[in-house]
Every structure is written in C-alpha cells, then in structure tokens.
Amino acid sequence: MSRARTASTSALCLAIALLSQSACTRESDDPDARLPSLDSGRDAPVATTTCRDNGDCDDGFPCTSDTCVVGNVCENRPVDSECPSEQTCVVGRGCVTGMPTDCVDDDDCNDGRRCTGREQCLLGMCRTTEPYLCDDGNACTVDSCGGAADDCVFETICDSGVGGSDAGPVCTPFEASSVYSSTFIVPMAPSQGCATVPTYTASPIAFSIAGGTLTARATGIVMTQSPAPTGADFDLREDRGCAHFRLTGTFACGNQGMAMFTATFDSGCEPCADQSRSVMLLR
Fold it and tell me: 217 - beta bridge partners?
C-alpha cells in the first residue's frame, strides 16, 4: 500500500473516531439535564486542595465525606448522620449544635449545603441572604432544591409530561370559590432571612376566605385583602412593623395565575433587602 493511501486511510479513521466521540459525549436533549442552577455552586464545599486520591483530602473532621473529584481537587461534604442527633455537620467546623451564629467573615457561616442558600456574616451573626435558585427556564416544571443530592429538582407538571415541548398546563375555568380556597405552588419563590424579620418563603401560598376577607398564607407571611375579590384580580398585603409585603396579580385560569411579589423594609429592618419579583402561581 502506498504512503499516500496509508495517510488517507489514517485520516479517515481519525475523522470517524472523532465523530463517534462527539456523538457519545453530546449534551442531553433534556432541557432539565443541561441547565445548571443559577447559584453555580457558590455555596457548595470549596474544592481547592490538589489530590491524587481520597486520602489526600482528609480535613480532620470525622463527619465529612472527603473525596478527590474530577480535576484532582478535594471536595469535603457534610454528613449529618456522623454527628449526635442534636447536632449537624458543618464543613470546616465539624459537629455543631444548630447553625453557627457567631462569625467574623462569610466563611464562618458556610454550612456546605447548596440548598440552604448563601450564608453571610452580618453584624457578627450568620444569616441566609440569598436562596439557592434552580431555574431551567421551562414553564412545564416546578423547580426546587433538595433531596438526597442537595441540588436542583425539576418536577414535570404539564399535561403530556414532556418538558420543553409541551404547551403548558391545561387551563381550567376560573371559579372564584374554588381558586380562593386552594393552595398554589410558586416556582422560584421569593424568600429571605435577615436579622429583624423571620425567614419567609412565598411558596406554597394557601388562599382562604373567611368573614369576607381573602387571606394568602405562606411560610412567614400572612397577606389579606378585604373585601375579598369576586373576580380574577387580587391585591393582598401585610404590614408588619417595618416590613411590608404585597402580592398583586390576576388568574388567567382556574389553576394558573401571574403576580408581582414585593417586600419593602423601612428603617429598623436592616439588613433586610427589598425584593420585587414577577411570580407564577400553579396548582
């Protein structure tokens, strides 16, 4: 066989091999699988130490799982089951009772868990200032963070169960008596925890009517509207000292609504941060 023909054959084999490799490693067609959470692992255990095997990653705390991951860097994750029942494992601190509260900088507050959000040291105390956000940009899924993997979970809610290609949840007729006595999920729900206001999470939101007043209850928030609306538009509020919450919007269907959630704080509520976010209500 001539050298020219041998070279041509080798080039063809190389091209086929590269194409095969590309086909095997291409990204999943599932939008939930390819979109990362917005937090980008900011609150995950910091992996910086160079390693060759798991033995190089021992941080000296028995309650952490120490592994050498891809890239030859160490990752230390908390394992609560290795602590007494009344304690939790915190990366860099070991078994502690509750979340650490005294701090000098943000590193003192990092509990090593994505889903608990971003912890910061404010006025010498640890506070969760930003939730860990999961958003796949798909209206056919309810996005949350949790589970055994301590990461994003995308639950399909559309009628055909095909994320990314479905038209969305089936629209049911609006009936005030039914809607205003139901509980709605709020994907990407606004939440916050700060020094002077208890932690709140605007999901789920349970509507109810009693004595002519519409009440919307979420974790840490109880908003009301009086008299209760009879149509699809609603405007609920709660004023709690220096904190003010408002949810105003409309129901396009009996099981879908769009609203604007706002949280504003007067002097005396430092270091709480104002929030204003468009949200979807689904049931």
Answer: 206, 222
